[in-house]
Amino acid sequence: MVEVEYVRETRPQILDEFHFSGNFQPRTPEIARAYELGKNLHRGQLRLSGEPYFETHCAWVAEFIDRLLQNEAWTIAALLHDAVEDQDESLTQIQDYFPGPLGKHVAFLVDGVTKMSNPPDGQSRELETLRKIARFRDPGVFLIKLADKSHNIKTLEFMSPQKQRQKATEAIRAYGKLAGILNCYRWRRWLEDMAFPFAEPEVYNFVRGEIDRDPRLELDFINGMLADLRDLMEAESVSGKIRIIVNGYWQAWQKLRRMARGRRTSLNDFSDVNDVVSFRMLVENDNVPACYQLLARVNRLFNRNLEQGSFDDYIANPQDGYRALQVSAWIPGRGSIEVAITTEVMEGENLWGVVYALQNKKPITQYKPVQIFTPTGGTRFLPDNSTVLDAVASIQDFLMDKINRVEVNNELRALDAQVFPGDVVEVITQGARIVPSEEWLKFCNLKTARILRSVLIMAELKQMAAEGRRKLKPLLMKRGIVDLEDVQVQERNKFENLLSTLAAASLDDIYSALGGGAILEVDIEEALDEVGISKEVLGWTTINVVGPSQTNRPGVLAYLANLVSGFGGNIIRTVNNTFQDGSFTLRWVIDGVNEEKKQSLLQAFLTSEIRLTNVEIV
Length: 618
Fold this sequence. Notes:
Layout: E1 2-4, H1 29-41, H2 53-69, H3 72-79, H4 83-87, H5 91-97, H6 100-113, H7 125-136, H8 139-154, H9 161-181, H10 185-199, H11 201-212, H12 219-235, E2 240-246, H13 249-261, E3 277-283, H14 288-302, E4 312-313, E5 325-331, E6 335-343, H15 344-359, E7 370-373, E8 379-382, H16 388-395, E9 405-408, E10 411-412, E11 425-428, H17 446-477, H18 484-490, H19 492-502, H20 507-516, H21 521-531, H22 535-538, E12 540-547, H23 556-566, E13 570-578, E14 584-591, H24 595-606, E15 614-617
Parallel strand pairs: 1-2, 3-6
Antiparallel strand pairs: 2-3, 4-5, 5-6, 7-8, 9-10, 9-11, 12-14, 12-15, 13-14
Helix pairs in contact: 1-3, 2-3, 2-8, 3-6, 5-6, 6-8, 8-9, 9-10, 10-11, 11-13, 16-17, 17-20, 18-19, 19-21
């Protein structure tokens, strides 16, 4: 039997997990005692909204935690999470208030979520608090703090715009990522999408507008696809459920940004973001073989529309606890969609991570990550035994070939050194950079290794491209050219014909192929002649100039341009760059200057009143 959850609205209000009744009902006598203690401690304290602090905030956090986990110590700690910070209650007093191990556990949790009052070394209070939470590595501490921040974001409208932006950005950067590493997808999506309109209002309005009118979210399309997948599942005699997940605005925007940085799409087109809507096929119980059975049938369903490079097997290789088979298909006129095949058991953990594991008494070792920070308060989560190199990759993968040195807690640290909870990691990029090496693969985790292999390939391609440029330059100079980019801009058809002749996709491809030996110099020369990139056809002369900062002043370019026109030259392209120290480079592509005039023009540049570091005319 296959149960289908047909859709009436694509973004229904999430009330079941996140709604607070407003009438907290203690489950146990000790929780009731904690409620009365908290109520007395916070008596008279109001929120910015004017509502009683304890009854609205602390009770919300406690009810949320209690509804999720029904852990007495955690619920009590949630009720008293602000007692030390706001009311000067001591941890000893809290411990003594509850008998035996319960009091110790509650005091431990309250200590974990209490903000640092006097951070050392002038560090920000919030950063030091996050570092403190990281060192506890306790899921109770993580979840109570996450619930605390979630309720704060629910009431941002009562803060100033500056505070709203600050708190919302912190919620996304730190606590959204915390929900992610705990694999609590629904919680993360809810928190980030509450914070997004306050953190980046204009971007939020754009993203929401684009996604809400996306044709993949039309009800007829979604329900039709759900019916097709139901038929497929029934044909395979596999029991289970079929539903959808609509991605959060913030997560969809972040995925689009990553794709745009990789030049796979543009920043105003969500059609390539495959999980704007994800169709979920949930196999009954924990029947993993049936997932693979359905995979072949799903591939046949989409046939030619299947995106061949977008298959992920997260059952064999889980990602941060997430397990599913994922395929993507391009639906003409709509865009890319995702179909995820998993089991009902796996989906429980996919959506609620550590919460689901605790509810079902499953191991939670993977949910005790190493949390590190950047100097600006950014946070990242890493597996146990991660190294400094893993930390760099987690901060920004594009930094891996830009490392000058790495400092951990303001001290120089080797790339293969281990990082620990609460470490502050700073990547220094100024100065000479360490060249990435295959040796690094020996001391990084699997996620970093995947990134590193790409970095190593790119580093090799850059090296080959540099060698290709070196080899190509003398071949071009004979043709009055210094850089093929000038041909690309001025003679587009000839450049496209050159790419076609050499079977290259881009200018960088030509450089890399020549540098790596896939194309020989003789091949380049023949191709240039064939497409008409020659001195005889183009009639170009190129002037390359390097000047010091003292020369970089108004009127210099006009003066040099007069020298060119004095010899009958016509400037058809200018490329001018100024550097931080004020020095500059200038490249002019000109026509109308023959070989005889070229030597005279060079002499005029060299003897002019403008001091130049280097002059090259070809």
